Automatic annotation (TrEMBL):
It comes from Amycolatopsis panacis. Gene3D superfamilies: Luciferase-like domain. Residues 13-230 form the Luciferase-like domain. GO terms for molecular function: monooxygenase activity; oxidoreductase activity, acting on paired donors, with incorporation or reduction of molecular oxygen. Keywords: Flavoprotein, FMN, Monooxygenase, Oxidoreductase. This is LLM class flavin-dependent oxidoreductase. It comes from the Bacteria.
Length: 289
């Protein structure tokens, strides 16, 4: 089994790398066989904008942009991530971070007393996935003779009304070539039970027992372990290759410490064969959604 490698970068901050350094590191990541670049939400540069910039120079690698629920309405985020996914040919996703709400959603929030960040994350992820499926690709007809562009019968509003969000939908563009963009989550901040229904990629600091907990949580919602990539987060100075096999992980998330030089050294340590995959979902060994 191949080991999936994801590189985490903080772009535009004093403790991270510059945009120019991120371009060079992405080039090295492509050469090193990295599956995806995770772009942190630092407050300095919008991760989705950074991802778009990097993808214009390196389209053959995946991009996962961190987006918190705080300050971001789900409909707007769904459009932004799907636009990134379309621009990268199906190599994009979101690392959804649990937090608070946003001004747009709170103006029509169904339950003003709802406040649990984990429950908000669960509902937010559900809204994202339903929006990404609301305009299926097969709805695009493009029939000149019939003057028909879209089969509107296939495009359906989601009509979501939950405790935190009221979202009508649908989106105004077709779904992804990979089914839908990936949803990634950090275990620890979120439990396996919270993310089981929606997550495609999980990252953990505590590998021991993670596979069993994730497998059980997935089983309870009718999913299998093969539908999720489980990554262990590592920092420089560790050699977890045996650790990966022992804990049945699918790969690692590399978290460099010390700027661009440290990131480059970490990438060289983990250089491997280039994944032969046309989408990010396939790059992680997952079937289309």
């Amino acid at each position: 089994m191949s080991t999936h490698v994801q590189l985490s970068l903080r772009v535009g901050t004093a403790d991270g790398v510059s945009l120019a350094e991120a371009v060079a590191l992405t080039d090295l990541a492509v050469e090193s066989g990295v599956t995806a670049i995770r772009l942190a939400d630092t407050g300095a540069l919008d991760p989705t904008v950074v991802a778009s910039y990097l993808a214009g120079r390196h389209p053959g690698i995946g991009y996962l942009a961190e987006v918190p629920t705080t300050g971001n309405a789900p409909y707007n985020v769904a459009r932004r991530i799907l636009s990134l996914d379309r621009a990268t040919g199906g190599r994009a996703g979101i690392v959804l971070l649990a937090g608070n709400g946003d001004e747009v959603s709170e103006a029509t929030v169904p339950d003003p007393t709802a406040a649990d960040p984990v429950q908000r994350w669960i509902e937010y992820a559900e809204v994202l996935t339903r929006l990404w499926e609301s305009f299926p690709r097969e709805a695009l007809i493009g029939d000149r003779e019939a003057a028909l562009v879209v089969d509107t019968a296939l495009v359906e509003p989601i009509g979501h009304e939950g405790a935190f969000y009221r979202v009508g939908g649908p989106l105004d563009g077709p779904s992804s070539v990979q089914g839908r963009p990936l949803v990634a989550a950090d275990l620890g901040a979120l439990t396996p039970e919270a993310v089981a229904a929606s997550a495609d990629v999980l990252v953990t600091d505590e590998a021991e027992g993670a596979d069993a907990r994730v497998t059980e949580a997935l089983h309870r919602v009718g999913r299998t372990r093969a539908e999720v990539a489980l990554l262990g987060r590592i920092t420089p100075g560790t050699d977890p290759r045996a650790w990966i096999a022992e804990h049945r992980l699918d790969g690692v998330e590399l978290v460099p410490e010390g700027g661009a030089d440290a990131a480059a050294a970490l990438l060289r340590d983990w250089a491997g064969p280039r994944p032969d995959a046309e989408t990010l979902r396939a790059g992680f060994g997952l079937v289309p959604a």
